[in-house]
Amino acid sequence: MSLFKTKEWWRTQCGVNESFDRRSLLVAPLFGADRKDIVIVGSHSGCLRIYSPLSQWIDETKLPSGYKSTDLIIETQIGDCIVDMKTGKFVSGSQDTRLAILTSTKLIIYSIVLNQGSVEYGL
């Protein structure tokens, strides 16, 4: 007997013929005071995707609303294999949470800012 029940809440398909491992997925609270949980996916081919899932449970169908195109905030090509990803306070003197991407040749630190009402996203 289990103490927990699981339900599928949200899913997406990340690219075609891309490879991933256990370090390819990161869920972290980002975006300043909002601190929403964001899903970050990095592939070995260097594609970085950042999602803000807004799935809701639909009582009539007993299913989640699922993936919407607006869930994808950013999709960009890093240009090198993404080895690992972490979030933290990586910049001295700043309390902002940053995204660190480790590739096979370098460590990249991103500051991610969400502009409300903007239709163009970018790193």
From TrEMBL:
Record-annotated membrane-spanning stretches? none
What domain of life is recorded for the organism? Eukaryota
Return one Gene Ontology term, BP aspect: cilium assembly
User: Which Gene Ontology cellular-component terms appear in the entry?
Assistant: BBSome; membrane
Instruction: Outline the extent of the PTHB1 N-terminal domain.
Output: 1-122
Designated name of the protein: Protein pthb1
Native organism is Lasius niger
